[in-house]
Structure formats: C-alpha cells, structure tokens
Specification:
66% of the residues lie in helices and 2% in strands. InterPro entries: 26S_Psome_Rpn12 (IPR006746), CSN8_PSD8_EIF3K (IPR033464). It comes from Porites evermanni. Keywords: Proteasome.
C-alpha cells in the first residue's frame, strides 16, 4: 500500500486525466501522454493485483478507472494492439471488484477476435461468456457468420449496445465485404454498379466506387465492372515464347559476328 502523499499525487494526476478525456473535442495525443504518466505513477501501487497482495479500494478504483479510459482511448485512436494491452490489464480487476464497463470491454474484445476468425475457424469464446455478457457479439453475430447470413450481420450494425462497438463492427463489415468481393470476381464475368452496391451493402454508389478503386476494379462507360476469368489470367501469365525466340536469334547473330 502506497503512502498518502503518493496517493494524493496520483489522484491529482487522475483528475487531470478525467478532465482532458471529458473535454470536447478530446486531445488524444495529450490524453495518451497522461495515460502513460498515470501508469508510471501506478507502479508504486498494486497496479496489477494478485492473490498475494491486498491493495486498498481507492488504489483499485484509481487503477481500474485509468485502464478503462485507456481502453476507450485505444478505440478512439483505432489502435488494436493498445486495446488488447489495456484489456489484458483490466481483466485482473474482475477478480476483485466488478468494473463499471468490464462487460462492455469483454464484448468488444471478443468482437475483435471475431474479426480475425470471420472465416469460421471456431468460436473464440466460452459458453458461459456467451450466456452472460456476449449475447450481442456471439449469440447473434457469430451465429449469422456461421450461417453465412451476411445480410443480418450488416443489419446488426444499427443495433449495437454502445458507440464503442462501431469501430470493431466496421472492421468486421470491411472483412465481409472483401470476402464477398473475392467471390464476386470468381463467380461473375461482370457486374453492374447498382448491383455491386447492393450485394456489398454500401449505402451509396460513391462508397462503392471508392471500394472498387481500392480493389483495382475498373468501371466501364456502361457502368459495369468486368472481371478477368481465371483462364484469361493464366494465358496472360504464360511465357512470351515469340519474343524469347526473337531475342535468342538476335543473340546468336551477335555471337556469330564476334567469332
């Protein structure tokens, strides 16, 4: 347990952190520096509690609240590795005192895993989590993914429990769009702009055009995207035999002159 003087300094630092975090618009760079300073100050306390130590409730609350701000800050920065680090540290407080946003952060953490497992390689959560805190993330969206019912996954983006979900939800939707686009390239020789907008669940043709450019799709004057068949791609990748023969003949002539 830390001294009262050290505790007052950390409380003062935390109050500054809260003030900056609640400021609109928030200065993410400044909050990031304050979070780093807060974690350094918390080292003198039982920053990550274990069964062998008994930190005071105030120390636990300070560390917990700072880590929760760190989770939200990571989402605002769109920094997934930072989100994972703060989540791993925040999980330790589940054993001591139920955190105010712990259930929400756990859902977000699993949603992040769902993005990387969207190919159906297996559910990354335990059954008891799904029953208690992951109803939205796993009980619904994972079920839709396993069914291949992408339409319901896209509809679920308007039914998220909190605004913080949108970041990971958008990553998941982008991943699904890439999968749908890859299948479209193989299944159809061409597709119209309105139809591509529909099957990729874009709200406007402008967004579809931007997505098409990102994938290297070329929109023709008739507003159709045309895809190369696999046989055409293989033909293009064949060795240019005619040019090779021509180069070899020229090389032989040059050698004959030299000799």
């Amino acid at each position: 347990m830390a001294s009262q003087t050290g505790l007052k300094e950390v409380v003062s630092l935390y109050q500054t952190l809260i003030k900056e975090w609640n400021r609109k618009p928030v200065d993410l760079e400044k909050v990031g520096k304050l979070l780093s300073g807060m974690k350094m100050a918390l080292i003198q306390f039982s920053f990550l509690p274990t069964s062998s130590c008994k930190p005071s409730p105030q120390e636990l609350l300070l560390a917990r609240d700072a880590l929760e701000i760190g989770v939200q800050w990571s989402i605002s920065k769109k920094d997934i590795p930072s989100f994972e680090r703060y989540m791993a540290q925040l999980m330790a407080y589940q054993l001591f005192k139920r955190t105010g946003y712990l259930f929400e952060w756990l859902k977000l953490s699993v949603k992040k895993k769902m993005v990387s497992h969207s190919n159906g390689s297996g559910c990354p959560c335990k059954k008891n989590f799904a029953k208690i805190i992951l109803r939205h993330s796993v009980g619904l969206i994972w079920h839709y993914l396993m069914e291949g019912n992408y339409n319901k996954v896209f509809l679920a983006r308007g039914n998220v429990p909190a605004d913080n979900y949108h970041f990971f939800m958008n990553i998941l939707l982008d991943t699904l769009r890439d999968e749908i686009a890859a299948c479209t390239e193989k299944a159809y020789p061409c597709i119209s702009l309105p139809e591509a907008t529909r099957i990729l669940y874009f709200e406007s043709e402008k967004d579809m055009r931007a997505f098409g450019e990102k994938r290297g799709w070329i929109l023709k004057e008739d507003k159709y995207y045309y895809f190369e068949l696999e046989s055409e791609k293989e033909t293009k990748q064949e060795i240019p035999s005619y040019k090779m023969i021509q180069y070899m003949l020229e090389y032989a002539k040059e050698l004959e002159r030299i000799v």
